[in-house]
Design brief:
alpha+beta, FAD-bd_PCMH, 4 domains, eight-stranded antiparallel β-sheet, single chain, Uridine Diphospho-n-acetylenolpyruvylglucosamine Reductase, domain 3, Uridine Diphospho-n-acetylenolpyruvylglucosamine Reductase, domain 2, Alpha-Beta Plaits, 18 helices
Amino acid sequence: MAVMMPKPSQAILARRAAIVGALRAIVPGEGVVDAANEMAVFESDGLTAYRQMPLVVVLPDTVAQVAAVLAYCHANDIPVVPRGSGTSLSGGALPLEDGVLLVLSKFNKVIEIDYDNRCAVVQPGVTNLGITKAVEGEGFYYAPDPSSQIACSIGGNVAENSGGVHCLKYGLTANNVLGIEFVTIEGEVMRLGGKHLDAEGYDLIGLMTGSEGLLGVVTEVTVRILQKPETARAVLIGFPTSEQAGECVAAIIAKGIIPGGMEMMDRPAIHAAEDFVHAGYPRDVEALLIVELDGPGAEVDHLLAEVEAIANANGAVTCRVSQSDEERAAFWAGRKAAFPAVGRISPDYYCMDGTIPRKELPKVLAGMKAMSEKYGLRVANVFHAGDGNLHPLILYDANKEGELHRAEEFGNDILRLCVAVGGVLTGEHGVGVEKRDLMPEMFNEDDLKHQQRVKCAFDAKHLLNPGKVFPQLHRCAELGRMHVHKGQVAFPDLPRF
């Protein structure tokens, strides 16, 4: 494993039998898995380059069981890694050798659908697409739509603040969650928000969303549901260069047009997706934009004409508008299947996630091309172009000596470039273990310490998902320590409590 994880506690490993027995008393029946061959399916998440067996796997099916497991682990200083469907691409659900893997997949019920208040209350194991399936009969849907939406769970979406192709207009998970129930590491059940639009005080829902399992374990989520638009049409626009496609994206947004979705793919990704799905993508272009406009029919027709004019002004060589919902779905099917499609042309690939200002896209694409030559590895690019969220897919063969390491270094250089041009390390996949050691590229030591102070407020013992996000973890006592210099504390006139 290239990424170093905390050294396992030998004291915990020596107590494994007793720990398993105690957990079986809390979650009886088949809720505790401790056989090595049965735990093997949990040894990694979507970032399969990194694997590690957990101490034990626990699959509770009630909130009371979750609370009891966490309280037991807190009392006995046992680390806990929460896990949803395991689709995380940053190693966020990577198990710990001396930790309990707490799997929420049995929490898979839609508790309530409230059309009057435009929301649904669901358990965290419900899949992203499952929410839309539950409400589409009444003409509603759940807007955030990651490519893994058929499998990823809403609890995991909350943990990573997941996005998707339609988040440009309708927002990320954070913009579509109204309330959550979660359990602290001490076993206390807490509720934040509800069906109402906003809550007073600190935005604790915003804090929990994207916290990557470091602050608590989500056991219920209230999400916003939207009525399906009257009309939705998509247009495929091909360009002779990726730079022209990037300029077109910037021009569309500058015009004040906010599409429902705006995605970009380069030539390798286009060909892989077309070979896999047969969506009708043009093969003679270097870059392809998929732009979807939605709303009243007259508005969509007007905006389509505007987008086509902008595309032509930026050198588009092909422009094809969907003529039916089936054709529009086919356009998106290719994009949604881009990741598995690339898996057909390479033994392995490393899916990256960084975000940049849209205007920097040509510079970053040129930089990635140079890096591809430097590391001797191909790269296919898929972007949430409207909000600058990049997903480069670095192609490699793990069976060839050194290729995984080169892929990792290639990915690190891409993320450093994202930060250098004014972007950030992640748009929706999270930090996990993948980007953990790159955090100092974006944050200074004081920034990281302040983030860890938030962690300490929720989890003073650092038992929830340790080894993730922070490159160097400080004990809470160290972070709270007062610095005294030559007998004087900083700001001596301030009252101390």
